[in-house]
Description:
The structure holds two protein chains of two kinds.
Chain A: H1 28-48, H2 60-64, H3 68-100, H4 106-121, H5 125-135, H6 140-147, H7 163-187, H8 191-199, H9 204-232, H10 236-242, H11 249-258, H12 265-293
Chain B: H1 2-19, H2 30-37, H3 39-72, H4 78-90, H5 93-104, H6 115-139, H7 143-152, H8 157-168, H9 170-185, H10 189-193, H11 199-209, H12 213-238
Helix pairs in contact in B: 1-12, 3-6, 3-9, 4-6, 6-9, 7-8, 9-12, 11-12
Amino acid sequence: MTDRPAGPRGALTARPSSSPRRAWLGIVPFALFALAFMILPASSILLGSFQDEHGAFTLANIAHLARPDILKCYLVTIQVSAVTAVAGGLFGLLLAFSVTLGGLPKALRSGLLTFSGVASNFAGVPLAFAFIATMGRVGIVTVILKTVFGVNLYEHGFNLYSFWGLCLTYLYFQLPLMVLIITPALDGVKKEWREASESLGASGFQYWVHIALPILAPPLLSSMILLFGNAFGAYATAYALTGGLLNLVPILIGAQIQGDVLHDPNLGYALAFGMVVVMTACILAYTALQKRASRWLR
Amino acid sequence: MFFGFLYFFVPLAATFFFSLHGKRGVLGFAAYRRVFADPQFLTTFTFSFEMAVCTIVVGLALIIPTVIWIHLRAPWAKPIVETFSLLPFVIPPIVLVFGLIRMYSAPPFQLVSSPALLVAGYVVLAFPYIYRAVDAGLRAMDLRGLTEAAQSLGAGWGTIMFRIVLPNMRVSLLSAAFLTFSIVIGELTLAVMLAWPAFGPYMALVGRDLAYEPTALAILSFLLTWGLIGLIQFASRSLVSQGSAVGGAH
């Protein structure tokens, strides 16, 4: 492993160097790599969304984004992301709360955190399989509900391959992710605050409304934004679950790349461009909230 | 808490139960046997395994020196690199791979048919995780104090790196490596779009054509993830390092 930067070896000292101008050399390899395989490809998408097939400037691709079917596609994707972000955020918060401030035993806490680490990584194709086996048309739960309880999920409008089915599946990685991100924030809530507020005569309700929630609101919101972005960019799970039946933006982009009937790279660029715009808005909101959050929770 | 348990447990149990139905009317591991007997299983898994190892090596080689350098010499660059390492969250994999294809399918950089591009994409995907883990590992030790002490005892930079800094952060390195592995091994988006015979696309293909084998695959990959995360936890506990290794993931 060559784990030395390409910087000047002799100049590398532990003390703040006398030549700060050369200090940037150390991050050059990383910056070059990021530029070559992240920044430039993303920018080339940006560029491509303003070009027609001959490379001339055009706004036609962007205008396509306003097509009703494409707008609907964005809307569905945003809805899935929002629903799973809010639901995953709330339930994740409850779970994290119960093991941090709720006073459940320590063993449960480490168990939950470990499991969350596993489950939040258990996404994509295998997750889709698991849900098909569970809630699909011949899934175990569907069959048990039908034969034992006489409830036919699919006659009641449930369909795993539809909007709510996708939400249910996404929650399987959203919820644990929330547990993982929010637990440190909940750990940062100090007992002293509660004691101080009580000694000043505040009730438990007042403590939560005026102290704990305002402090926790930024990390809560920022975690949910992260969940939103997480769901918004998810491709593999949706691909394996619905096989492209549900029109999500990532699926649509995939179709443009893979060159099936819909093949139109420039429309693909525009779609990707729209996605990056949404994600950028997410990350901006996220960093702004993080700054606020770090004031109290360190 | 109870509902949480139910929600997480039922799909797993159901999947496992489903996967045992490989042979009509008999509960057993027939589906698993068929999965293992499929030569495609082995070749795609091996391919993804190799890609994962390459990604870990390249990713660590790229990020460790950068982060050490930032800690010692260029603290001002921290926000910049941090932003870079968060960018993969902003650029969804599907957009990333689209950009990679557009950029590297024509001269002067014709890389689309080379596995190097796939590895590069994976390294980008793993950026946030590796960065967090390495950063947490460095923050957990007194890097400056250690390097100064070593220097004052006459150690060169090679000695400092390989005998002091890296051993001190082996837990975070391990967790970075395992996390990267678990990301790459089942990755679908990049592999499908760049048309590589990787494990993710193989699973998707099996899922389209067969009924019981996919659930066996799901259980296997869940066990694999468990094993990896378990290893991370085990490593961090046995070496008594602070901070949950998994927490470094997000």
